[in-house]
Amino acid sequence: MQGSKLYVGNISFNTTNEDLKALFSQFGEVQQVNVIQGKGFAFVEMANQVSAEEAKRKLDGSDFNGRNIKVDVARPPKSRSSRGRGYDRR
Q: Domain tally for the chain?
């Protein structure tokens, strides 16, 4: 696993940054939490890769607020220029 930023999916729409910080803090220092409101997912950045790996291993598929959450390594965002628009911009 590379990096310490995790994707957390299938979370309740009522989940707050503080809820996830409390959950992930049991595996190490949480640097940042960003719940994407109304989308059902979030990003959690751990202080180091070891903490992120442990959190992923122990929390992926676990029950959190009545939902089985998905925890995985966050992928870097796609650049906007790589998205096809269906026409040639000249």
A: 1
